[in-house]
Amino acid sequence: MTFKDKYSLTPEQNIFLAKKNWDENVYCGMRMENRAVTFPQTKTILEGVNVPNVRLDDIQAILNMRDAWNFCLNTMSEPLSLDYLYRLNGYIARNEALEWGKLRTGAVQISGTEYTPPVPVSEQAEQELDSILNADNTATEKALNVFTWGARSQLFWDGNKRTSLIAANKVLITSGAGMLTVKESNMERFNELLVDFYNTGNPDRLKEFLYNNSIIGITV
């Protein structure tokens, strides 16, 4: 399948879109991690208001995602690189993982799958990311490849899907191609396809689903 860009926005228009929808994207990250928070709770916490009966670690995760988005929006002129992913994960996994902002150095298991991701090697990861970003295809396909590669590579101890989500959005936003965010109504199917991707290594069905259901934009 060819993943053509659905939108052709100016950087200013796309940043406006990102700022308008960043709370929903933060919530998308929480649902990807199966966090027990609702969208209204997430939005209220992002507005700086205390919400009873929300776990402290869930609040921490929401605020981490907020800070990661602020970092991304403030560094749009910087190129996406492995070092950028380190910095992004440093916000997302802060106080959630053994280490954050560094490649993991040990084995991890992904629940619900038989896939065991290899321990990452920085030179290889950098080459793989460069290959994705320098490929002759659309910004949308590059973003989908960044997300699927980052999610399955499991470069970090924690926060891999969230790190990959924001990195993919950086690709889209800087190119004026919209945003990637998984609606709650699509989350169950997303998780099914993600598990299938982990097990098979074939991202095609997941990418097609995300392209058809999770690329949003504005008509101008």
How would the blueprint of this fold be written?
Layout: H1 11-32, H2 39-46, H3 56-74, H4 82-92, H5 122-133, H6 139-153, H7 160-175, E1 179-180, H8 187-200, H9 204-213, E2 215-216
Antiparallel strand pairs: 1-2
Helix pairs in contact: 1-2, 1-3, 1-7, 3-4, 3-7, 4-7, 6-7, 6-9, 8-9
Description:
With 220 residues, this protein is mostly helical. The chain has one domain: Fic-like fold (Orthogonal Bundle), CATH 1.10.3290. It is built from 9 helices and 2 strands. A two-stranded antiparallel ribbon has the order 1-2. Helix 3 (56-74) packs parallel to helix 7.
Which CATH class? Mainly Alpha
The ordered H/E elements are: HHHHHHHEHHE
Quaternary state reads single chain
Distance between the termini: 26 Å
Strand numbers in spatial order across the main sheet: 1-2
Shape: globular
Q: How many domain regions?
A: 1
**Which spans have pLDDT < 50 for at least 5 consecutive residues?**
none
Query: Percentage of helical residues?
Result: 55-70%
